[in-house]
Structures are given as C-alpha cells and as structure tokens.
Design a protein that fits this description.
This protein has five helices and ten strands; from the N terminus they run H-E-H-H-E-E-E-E-E-H-E-E-E-E-H. It has 206 residues and is of the alpha+beta class. Strands 1, 2, 5, 6, 7, 8, 9 and 10 form an eight-stranded mixed β-sheet that branches. It has a two-stranded antiparallel sheet with strand order 3-4. The radius of gyration is 16 Å and the shape is globular.
Length: 206
C-alpha cells in the first residue's frame, strides 16, 4: 500500500496504533537568511509562475527553503528528493523530501531518515498529514533499534505545518508558519534540523 493511499490521518492513527496530540513544541533558532535569497524569492513570487503544478511548488517554494538551511548541516546529512522509502507492503513510496544521515560510504548511499516533508497537494493538508505520518512511521521502523524522534513537515509552499513522532506518540504543532514571515519560518525549520543533528550526535557518542 503506497503512502499516497492514506487520505485521512485518523486512518493512519488507527492502523498503526499511534496516539495523536497537539502542542506547540517548536522553538525559534534564528537563521541568517541572505539578502540574495530574500530578493530571489520576492522576484519569483512577483514575476514567475510558481504554483501552476505540484512540481513548481516544490521546486520554487519548498526546496529552496530546505536547501538553504541544509547547507549548514550538510556535513552530517543529505537532503534527498523523491527518494524511495520502503519498509513493507503497507509502508512504501516516494516522499517529496527526506533528510537522512550522511552515510560513511558516500553521498549516494541512503542512510537513517530523520525527517520527512510532504507537499499538501491541492492544499489538502488532511491527506498530506495522513501520507506524512505513514512515511514518518516507515522512517521510524527503518531506524530499528535507534530510538529517535522523526520530524514531519506538510506544506503547500505558502503554509508550513510541523509534527513529530516519538515512540507511539504523534504531536502536531498547533501553530502553522508561512513563507510571508520568512524569518519565523527559517527559525523553526532550523530548529528541526538542529534537533536532528543533536539526536545524531547523541547516537554517535554512544
């Protein structure tokens, strides 16, 4: 069963016996957004066609934000686009973006996944979260004995929603963020990256 077959988050919760909660768990870790990035994004939003397709939204609005933050963490992580994520016949597919540990074997080897991003297609955040949570569960199970918190993001390019999965408890952040408040958005995306880095460092220290 592909991740995209899940349309209602309650179905995923029930199928995999995960507890659903809502709370604001994000913190702001300020990120220096370059003037070049701001000007380029403003130009694209003003003069380019950025939302005529799912691919356009990913390429023009979602990936640029992730990539900008990823650059700071690139020594430890690889940001994968549409990489196959397969646990079993119920949990398989191609998330839009995955942040995974950089493998000691090289950048072409897919290693431990730490967070998942799913596009909310046609602004359908309900289906987006159903798919994202299924992918987060797959990532958690692929990590096996490594008990880490998996982070999830669902975005339509403009609005960004966040969640986390720790053990059998899924927490959705109550407050959404938007690309129109760029500094706030970057601060919370940076927080997610930092949490992933801290978890990785704690595992390496064991």
């Amino acid at each position: 069963m592909a991740f995209s077959n899940f349309k209602i988050i309650g179905e995923v919760i029930k199928t995999f016996q995960v507890t659903y909660t809502e709370a604001n768990f994000l913190s702001d870790i300020p990120f220096n957004v370059s003037n070049y990035f701001r000007e380029d994004l403003e130009l694209m939003m003003r003069d380019a066609v950025i939302d005529n397709s799912e691919f356009a939204i990913c390429e023009n609005l979602i990936y640029p934000v992730l990539k900008e933050v990823w650059k700071t963490y690139r020594q430890n992580f690889i940001l994968w686009s549409h990489q196959s994520l397969n646990y079993d016949e119920k949990l398989s597919g191609f998330p839009e973006y995955i942040l995974a540990k950089r493998s000691p074997l090289g950048k072409v080897v897919f290693d431990q996944p730490y967070f998942i991003l799913v596009e909310a297609k046609q602004d359908n955040f309900e289906a987006g979260w159903a798919q994202c949570l299924a992918e987060m569960i797959a990532a958690q199970r692929l990590n096996g004995e490594y008990e880490i918190t998996i982070f999830g993001i669902v975005s339509n390019g403009v609005t960004w929603q966040f969640g986390k999965l720790g053990g059998d408890k899924f927490t959705k952040n109550i407050t959404p963020y938007t690309i129109y408040e760029l500094d706030k958005l970057f601060a919370v995306v940076n927080f997610v990256f930092k949490q992933c880095e801290m978890q990785l460092n704690s595992l390496l220290a064991v």
